[in-house]
Design a protein that fits this description.
The protein is mostly beta strands. The protein has seven helices and 21 strands. A six-stranded mixed β-sheet has the order 12-11-14-19-16-17. It has a five-stranded mixed β-sheet with strand order 1-5-10-9-7, with no helix packed on it. β3 and β4 form a beta hairpin. The termini are far apart.
Length: 347
């Protein structure tokens, strides 16, 4: 592994030379992740029965098929994008579970279990009070998948349940609480389904509030992706937005003196993040993204797996500001990105 100080110097030298960040927020949903997709191949694999038990059961009831999966069973499905339709306060979402090969580092393909063919899955942007109908279509012919939305206040045993291969299921909920939330697959072994790439962010903004300028997801990759490696909690990479150096080569953009709002989610599955911006303080930190739980002028904030924050800060000088997990083991494994701050326009 590279020494941390050399890693930082290499990252810092590369800052500010690349195009606009791929994570700038648009309306409804944003395709997340910098990991490049390999050319898809036809599945060509017969369907296997999935585990159709309700979510929330113990790891002892884990699906043997999922726990025993190897790359020999890998398929590479063509990514199918999320569909998001808004009619007033009513939102209809179609999201797809599929297996896709991505790259988590240069020359490092990863056979991922995904939402919509990307790791992380697309960010879902909602307004407080939205009535949401979300349909999960399980296109994976090999196993069952599910979706657990931390923004949905519903009975998990009735909603976050396994969807067998080739089937669909709809969840109805009201986005009643503002915040920055995780969504993830809850099928067992849940640790494996998350570590294989099945997670993303949901941002629920108050009705009159703007959406954040950027959404970033931290996660861990375990290579080789065996269940034992995941249980031992020794990740090969800890990255932002699904790939090593993703937000170094594609830095976020801000302007001197203007508020910059960043939503940050820690998908884990195992480790807490120590979120920190080098050269700045976090002017306002809404814990779990809720403005009712705000902290001010924070150096570093702990974000456990399954949680998020909404950060607002201003920059006094133009330049490149790294943001990192201040857990140095995570930093050395790749938990760093850049914010390229431009001077304010004159006049």
């Amino acid at each position: 592994m590279r020494p941390a100080h050399r890693f930082f110097e290499r990252q810092h030298r590369r800052g500010g030379l690349f195009p606009l960040a791929a994570v700038l927020v648009a309306f409804g949903a944003v395709l997340s992740g910098c990991g490049t997709h390999s050319a898809p191949t036809a599945a060509g694999v017969p369907s296997a029965p999935g585990n159709t038990a309700a979510a929330g059961h113990s790891p002892g009831n884990a699906s043997p098929m999922a726990a025993g999966r190897t790359d020999a069973h890998a398929i590479n499905q063509k990514p199918r994008p999320l569909q998001f339709v808004r009619r007033g306060t009513h939102v209809a979402i179609q999201i797809y579970a599929e297996e896709t090969t991505v790259h988590v580092a240069p020359g490092t393909p990863f056979h991922a279990w995904t939402f919509d063919g990307s790791v992380p899955g697309p960010t879902i942007l909602l307004k407080q009070g939205d009535h949401v109908a979300l349909t999960l279509h399980n296109l994976d012919p090999m196993m069952a998948h599910s979706i657990d939305l931390h923004a949905a206040l519903v009975a998990p045993n009735m909603n976050f349940v396994d969807v067998p291969a080739g089937r669909s299921r709809t969840i109805h909920f009201v986005a009643s609480v503002p915040g920055v939330f995780l969504y993830h697959c809850e099928s067992e072994p849940m640790l494996q389904h998350i570590a294989m790439g099945m997670y993303g962010a949901v941002v629920v903004t108050p009705k009159t509030a703007p959406a954040p300028q950027a959404v970033v997801v931290q996660s861990e990759f375990y290579l080789p992706p065996t269940y034992e490696n995941m249980l031992n909690d020794q990740p090969t990479y800890v990255v932002f937005d699904g790939a090593l150096d993703c937000l170094v080569t594609h830095p976020l953009r801000a302007t001197v003196g203007k508020p910059f709002m960043l939503a940050f989610v820690n998908a884990g599955p195992n480790q807490s993040s120590a979120f920190h911006v080098v050269g700045g303080t976090l002017g306002t930190v809404d814990q779990s993204g809720n403005p009712a739980d705000a902290l001010h002028d924070v150096q570093t904030v702990d974000v456990p797996p399954g949680d998020g924050i909404l950060v607002t800060l201003k920059f006094a000088q133009p330049g490149v500001y790294p943001f990192v997990s201040h857990d140095m083991a995570q930093f050395a494994r790749g938990a760093v990105g850049h914010i390229a701050v431009a001077a304010a326009a004159k006049g």
